[in-house]
Amino acid sequence: MCSVGESFVSFRYPNSVSVSLAGKWARTQVVLRDTVSGPHPSRYTSFQVAVYAGPFICLFGSHTEDTLEDGDAVTHCVYMYDRVSGDATLCVSLPHPDEVVSACMLNPTTMLVLQEERTLVLELDPELFNIYTDVD
C-alpha cells in the first residue's frame, strides 16, 4: 500500500484499490506488461511493496510458477505502474534478486530499497518522469 495525495492505493493482482480520506474508493484492473512480449501470461503475482514515484507507483513483487521438479519457483520483480493507463511495465531487475522488504523515495529521482540482507540506493532515470510532456 502507498499514499498518493489524499488517497491510499493497495495492489492485489489483478486489481488496485484506491481509498480517499473522504471515503471514496475506486477499483482498477492492473495489466502486467513485459517490455518485449506484451501482457504477461497468467501466473500468480503478488506485490509486497509499493512506492509513489511521480506519475508512477513502483511495485516490488514476486511471480510464483509451478514447476514439476522443485515445487514452486519464485522470481522477484519490479514493475512501474502507470496511474493513468493502469499498465504495470516490467523493469530491469535489481542487482540482487532478493525480496524487497521496504522502500521509499529519498528525492524525486533516488529511491532507498531495503532487502533482508542489504540496503540499495537506486538512481531512477529522469526521463522516466517526462512521459507526459510535449517536447518537439
What does this structure look like?
The protein has no helices and 13 strands. By secondary structure, it is an all-beta fold. It has a domain of 94 residues. A six-stranded mixed β-sheet has the order 6-5-10-9-8-7, with no helix packed on it. A four-stranded antiparallel β-sheet has the order 1-2-3-4, with no helix packed on it. It is globular, with a radius of gyration of 15 Å. The N and C termini lie far apart (37 Å).
Write the layout of secondary structure elements.
Blueprint lengths: L1 E3 L2 E6 L2 E6 L4 E5 L1 E4 L3 E2 L4 E10 L2 E12 L3 E12 L4 E4 L9 E8 L2 E6 L3 E5 L13
List keywords for this structure.
mainly beta, 6-stranded mixed β-sheet, 4-stranded antiparallel β-sheet, 0% helix, 61% strand, Gal_Oxase/kelch_b-propeller
